[in-house]
Specification:
This protein is an all-alpha fold. It has three domains: about 1-215, Up-down Bundle (Growth Hormone, Chain: A); about 215-270; about 285-485, Growth Hormone, Chain: A, CATH 1.20.1250.20. The protein contains 18 helices and no strands. The protein has helices at about 20-55, 60-85, 90-110, 115-130, 135-140, 145-175, 185, 190-205, 215-240, 245-270, 285-315, 320-325, 325-345, 345-370, 380-395, 400-405, 410-445, 450-475.
Length: about 475
């Protein structure tokens, strides 16, 4: 029994209490929570340099702003869905939303790097309580023949939010409302969160609770410890001078994650609930999907951080201009999503997406190489657009293709684990590409703009390698999706 599966929702009775208007209002509340989570995972890629200058943090501080949030969410997602099953999806959604709003305020008021990083980690954990409840709540709001329409709205909203996130962050930082500068990217969550909380308390439906449901919290702690032990050396190792114990900790983290898999098998053998169905680890499609999720989303988050650093620290752009410079990639991603519908939910579509992303990365490398320092950021727009198109083509069929390689009864466990793998990839991207960037940059101190060009080029080469690895993993995926996966 997997702790990431969601039981079939019970249809709500028709009538004034659950009218179509109320159902769509509830969907709006769910989307507010999901958009808040998405934006907070993106805003620090643009605001990071300003935050660091204001607080006096280290280069690693910039990486932790992104990695701390996403690794906490990755660990929390393993149990977030099942906690909703046990205590009620509405209760968990509102608890996560309330906590997320409070930690946003703490982030806005933070006066030192340690407080802000701690708040970001708590934000990630609370987001992991909130986000997994969305699917079950939306399913309970509509009859089966209408639920597809609701899910059809969520995709474009989230995609547009991804476009708006970096721009909004840059605008809020540059506008410096009330003299709060970067603090406004967190403070803006306060009124939005409070309004959504009140509306959610009134409008969201209650779900059945499974009070006797057993949740493998020990397994969750093992997984969290393993993830942390991998991420910490990758972020802090450079600042510490790569002492021997950093490599021991990294190896121990990988071993702990292997121990998590063994723990899942052990519980299954005893007939106990698991966080991940052990049978999934024997399926090539699922294991390949895990690697693809980790590798490719490393490039997505790491690339966002990389270009944010290059545009601001290397080229001296303001946060708003840096955010605007990413529009080409965001627009390309929307185009890629559309093209994926024409090409079909097939393995070939994913491979084409990875190939296009690689071409875009090579184009970015070439653009940087042929221009005199300092590079004109706007000349990178075509390369960023191609990266965006490739990303959209690769991401759109990802879940459908991977989940087509597992049994029907395993999709709940598999989808939850794949979502967690995405967040692990986000954390690794901020850690690995950020470390490569700063390592090369610090090794070429005093060289001015050329040092930033070299650092960005080195990180892009690593990103290219990660994309190649993701493309290689597609050979073990099903040829095409055989059943649609909602949400």
């Amino acid at each position: 029994m997997s702790t990431t599966e969601t039981p079939q929702a019970v249809a709500l009775p028709e009538g004034p209490a659950f009218s179509a208007r109320r159902a769509w209002a509830a969907v709006g509340i769910i989307l507010v929570g999901e958009v808040m989570d998405l934006l907070d995972s993106l805003v620090t890629t643009i605001a990071g340099p300003t935050i660091t200058r204001d607080m006096g943090g280290s280069q690693e501080f910039i990486q932790w702003l992104a990695a701390g949030y996403t690794i906490a969410m990755a660990a929390g997602l393993l149990v977030g869905g099942r906690l909703g099953d046990k205590y009620g999806r509405k209760n968990l959604f509102l608890t996560g939303l309330a906590g997320f709003t409070v930690t946003s305020l703490v982030s806005a008021l933070a006066t030192n790097p340690e407080t802000l990083i701690t708040a970001r980690i708590l934000q990630g954990l609370l987001g992991a309580l909130m986000v997994p409840q969305a699917l079950g709540i939306i399913r309970s709001l509509f009859p089966p023949d209408k639920v597809g329409m609701a899910f059809g709205v969520t995709g474009p909203v989230m995609a547009l939010s991804g476009v708006a996130g970096p721009i909004m962050a840059g605008w809020l930082v540059d506008a410096d409302y009330f003299g709060w500068s970067w603090r406004m990217i967190f403070a803006v969550n306060l009124p939005v969160g409070v309004l959504a909380l009140v509306a959610g308390f009134v409008l969201l439906p209650r779900s059945q609770r499974q009070r006797d449901l057993e949740i493998d919290m020990v397994g969750a702690l093992i997984a969290a410890a393993g993830m942390a032990a991998v991420i910490f050396p990758l972020v802090q190792g450079r600042e510490l001078g790569w002492p021997w114990w950093v490599f021991v900790l990294l190896a121990a983290g990988i071993g702990t994650l292997a121990g998590f898999v063994r723990h899942q098998y052990h519980r299954a053998d005893k007939g106990l609930s698991t966080l991940v169905l052990p049978a999934l680890f024997g399926k090539k499609a699922f294991v390949s999907g895990l690697f693809i999720g980790i590798l490719f989303f490393s490039v997505m988050m790491g690339g966002a951080l990389l270009f944010g650093l290059f545009f601001q620290l290397g080229l001296g752009m303001s946060p708003l201009k840096a955010g605007l410079a990413t529009i080409a990639q965001a627009a390309g991603m929307l185009l890629g999503f559309g093209l994926s519908q024409a090409l079909g939910m097939a393995r070939r579509t994913m491979f084409i997406g990875f190939a296009a992303t690689a071409v875009g990365l090579l184009a970015a490398l070439g653009t940087i190489a042929v221009q005199d320092d300092p590079v004109n950021a706007w000349w990178l727009s075509p390369a960023l657009a191609v990266i965006g198109v490739g990303s959209g083509l690769a991401i759109a069929p990802f879940f459908d293709i991977v989940l087509s390689g597992v049994d029907e009864g395993e999709t709940g466990s598999a989808s939850g684990t794949l979502t967690s793998a995405q967040q692990v990839g986000n954390a690794l991207g901020a850690s690995v590409l950020g470390t490569v960037f700063f390592s090369v940059l610090n090794g070429r101190r005093g060289e001015g703009a050329s040092a930033f060009t070299a650092a960005t080029s080195a990180a892009l080469l690593v990103a290219l390698t990660l994309v190649a690895g993701a493309a290689l993993c597609t050979r073990w995926l099903p040829e095409r999706a055989v059943r649609p996966v909602e949400g």
